Fold this protein.
Amino acid sequence: MAIPIHYPSPGGATPHEQLLNCCRDKVAVSAEEEVMIRATFKERHFARNEHILRVGEICPFSVYIVRGVMRDYTTDADGVEQTTRLAFDDYFSGDMHSLSNGVASVYSIQCLEETVGLTIDKAGYDWLFAQVPAFTNVFHYVRNRSFNVALQLMAERSSKSAEQRYLGLLRENPQIFQRVPLKIIASWMGIQPETLSRIRKNITL
Amino acid sequence: MAIPIHYPSPGGATPHEQLLNCCRDKVAVSAEEEVMIRATFKERHFARNEHILRVGEICPFSVYIVRGVMRDYTTDADGVEQTTRLAFDDYFSGDMHSLSNGVASVYSIQCLEETVGLTIDKAGYDWLFAQVPAFTNVFHYVRNRSFNVALQLMAERSSKSAEQRYLGLLRENPQIFQRVPLKIIASWMGIQPETLSRIRKNITL
DNA sequence: ATCCGTTCTTGACTTAAGTCAAGTAGCCTG
DNA sequence: CAGGCTACTTGACTTAAGTCAAGAACGGAT
C-alpha cells in the first residue's frame, strides 16, 4: 500500500538532515561523521497500525521518527494492553536492550500514524558506535533522558490525581489529543478509558 | 529482577574484581581494558542516610555499588518524597543525564545502608568511553535494561493490585524487606505505608 | 451513501486505596 | 535506661477510580 508522505519536512530538511539536526542539538558532528551517519540510516515508511516489533521477537532495528507516532506496549496476563511509552516526531523508538543483546523484547511497538522513519540495524549500530563517537553520545543522551522522563512520570502517577495529570498534558502536549486515540492516552496515563472520558467532560463543563 | 546480595564479596573478590566480574557478565574485557577500568574507578564508602546527590545539583559521579543500597527519589509539590528506584549490590546508581551533560539532576540519591561503592566522575567516564569500547557496552547494557525494568514496573502498577505486586516482590525479592524500611518500599510500590501495612497483615493471617 | 466494527460516552454501582487520627513499638543518643 | 524521634500499625471513614452495561458517534470498507 502506498503511503502518502507530506514532504517537505519542517524547514525543507530531508529526513537525514532532520536526523543530523537532532544530533547536532546534543553533540558536535564532524563532516566525516555526517557522511557515516547518512550512509547507515535507511529511510523506511510504515503504515498506520503496523507493528515494527512484537513482544518476544528480537528487535530488528532502532528507528529515528522523522514524522509519525509510535507506542510501546505490554500485554498483561488477561490480554489487556498497557501502553508504556509514546514517541513522536524527532524521537527514537525501538527496544535497545533486545537489539544490542539479541534477546527477546519485553514489549511490542506499533505505529499509530503513517510514519516516516530512519532505521538502523544491529550491524549499522555496532559499526557506527565504533566509528563515530559523536553518535555514541547521541544515543547516551537520548536513552538517559528517556529513562529520567519515565521515572518522573512514574512519580507523578503517585503524587497527582488523574485530573491533574490530564490538565498538565493538555497544557504541555495538547497535540497528543489530535494524534493518539483516547483509549491509548488513557492506558498510557494508567487509567481506564471511562475515567478519561469523565475527566474530559468535567473540564469542559 | 532478583537482587543479588554478596556477603562478603563472592570468592573474596576485591571491589574492583567484583566490578570486572560484573562487566565480564555482559561483554568481553581485555587485559589492557581491565587496567584502565581499575585505574578509573575509585573506592568510596558512604554512611547510612548519606546523600550522594540532591535534586538540582549536578551529579558528581556514577557509582557501582559493591555492597549496600541506594534509592532515587523525587520530592513533589507538597514535599512528599517518591522513591523511584532502588539499587542494591552489583548495580549502578547516579543520574547519568546530569553527569554526562552537566545539567541539574531531577532527583536525589541517598544510601539506605552503609555502602561501599566504586565511583567514576565525568572526566573518568569520558576518558573510559573513548579508550575502552567494552566499558561503553557495559553502560549501554545497564542503562537499556534499567529502562526496560522501569517500563515493566510502570505497566504492572496498572495491571496488578497492590497485593499482587507485594506477593510478587515477596517471591522474587524477599531480602528487600530486610534491607529497606517499609515506608520506602511502599513509596517505591506507589502506595501509602498504611496500605502496605494492611496488605502484610492480611497475608500473614 | 450504508454497513459494521471500533471508539467514545454516560449511568449506576462497587471497591481498592487514600486520609486522618491515635496509639504502639523500635531505635538511637545522651 | 530514660527520652524523644521515627517507623509501623490499626481503626473509622472518605473518595478516586474501576467495573459492568448500554447506547451514541465515528470511520473505514464496500
